[in-house]
Amino acid sequence: MTPSSDSPQKDPAPFLTSKWLWVLIIGLILAGAVLPALLPDKEAPMEVLLLQVNDVYEIAGLNHDSIGGLARIAALKQQLLEKNKNTLLILAGDFISPSVFNSVKKNGTALGGEQMIESMNAANFDLVIFGNHELDFSYTILQQRINASNFQWLASNVYHQVVGDSLAFQKNRTDIPRSWTKKFTDGNGRSVYIGFIGLTIPDNKGDSNYAAYRPTLTVARQLYDSLSKTCDAVIAITHQDEKDDRILAAAIPGLAAILGGHEHDQRVADIGEVPIRKAYANARNACEWKIVFDKKNTRPKVYTSFIQLDTSIPQDAATEKVVGKWMDLAKQYFIGLKYDPDAPVCPLLKDSLDGKDEDVRSRPTNLTRLITNAMLWATRSYHTQIALMNAGSVRVDDVITPPITEYSFLRAMPYRGPIQVADFRGDSLKLLLDLGATLIGDGAFLQYSDNLKKVPPARQWTIDNVPIDDSRFYRVAIADYLIRGLQKKMEFIKPYKRVIDFIPKDSTGTELRFDVVAATIAWYRQTCSAK
Ligand SMILES: [Zn+2]
Predict the structure, then answer these.
(1) Could you tell me if 327 and 59 are in contact, meaning their C-beta atoms sit under 8 angstroms apart?
(2) How many angstroms separate the alpha carbon of residue 203 from the centre of ligand 1?
(3) Which range, of 100-109, 305-314, 488-497, averages the lowest pLDDT?
(4) 54 CA to centre of ligand 1 in angstroms
(5) What are the b/e assignments for 370-398, b being 16+ CB within 10 Å?
(6) CATH topology for 46-318?
(7) 266 has pLDDT over 50
(8) Residue ranges of the domains in the chain?
(9) Domain 342-530 has what CATH class?
(10) What confidence tens digit (pLDDT) does each residue in 56-72 have?
(11) Is pLDDT of 518 > 60?
């Protein structure tokens, strides 16, 4: 509102009597008392809203579309924007992979995250950082995805490694910045600047090592020192272990907030005055940050709350349409591979299958037992004795609720891949098993068939209740990723085994062991009907 009007008075004469003059004078006095409150107040508190999600691999909602999904995130952002135009939607890393879509092909080419970028564009994301999984694909694919995105990327410590140098990753030939400063202006004409830094866990160098990392703390300190000179607040968006977020907060107590990702479950920690928040994976919920700037040069007040993205949140129609298009494409693709995505696998059973990362990477679950037992069964004609799988083969990070369909397993094991058969000497097998058991929380944690056990009190490994003999050879049904030496921390197994029958990835055949997903579905159908 402005205190004066420029519009000409059309007919002032009749009002200029003494009575009207007094009314005018009193009115002006009153206006004088009221108007300062209506004038722009550059000292008024100013609020910025950040809507945070992290580790979002699914474009559609989970549990029969009842929770999460990009269309709900889009609608929630829209709701916040209506309250406050100074709202940013942020994804703290891990979104283009892994996904059931990694194996879906369009015109013979794997989608490799295309479905996610297009859906995120529709949902109006503002800012993202690299998670470890952004580097799952080849450099060429990653570059295509970045170029196709409508949102801002930020990379403070991860670089593109080229011969003899490390350069900034680029989006359409422009460097992705190491820090990003955003100016927010409110209705009073007041402005604040927020400086963002984005830190990524250095544990994925991408296919053929195209990524390089600089130490997160050193980089964060440098950027904080320069940003804090010009910004009203500096915020770190991170994709790393919570313990490293805590170290970061303690090292840089001036940070206004840490928006984190990577763990997949909700985390809340306050180190000194620095709040650290992580939402559940797959946008089961989102964290709403309210950053309130009171006066210039004082620390903003920060308030956070988690919002459940359940059926109480509507779905944005435009995003829903894009998501629906990709979901249909995936369904048609799997139908082409002779899957029937909607077909129930075990309609009688009421149990859910536990595919949550924290369980799958620490102990056997009913899902991992199902898969490893299926691997053993599908290779029985080779006389395999046990089955071994890296926990990272299961990528659903979710409890799969009935009805269990073929799509449930395609989602659970997006990499699919053949089941390989190899012989291991007893001593090297025990070495592998001992190491696998210690790697709790890691994708290298080993899952194995029910007939393999570690028996107290001597903690001896047994197969069908017989201790493993160091000098004997054992025939193992083993995940493709492990046998090819791709699993970090277990690369050493490559020379330790004698491969009996190797199936190249993506080859097709009628045997069930050509595809671990097909084998698991067939085994589950069989054991289910046997009950
Ligand atoms: Zn991650």
Answers:
(1) yes
(2) 9
(3) 488-497
(4) 9
(5) bbbbbbbbbbeebebbbbbbbbbbbbbbb
(6) Purple Acid Phosphatase; chain A, domain 2 (3.60.21)
(7) yes
(8) 46-318, 342-530
(9) alpha beta
(10) 999 999 878 899 999 99
(11) yes
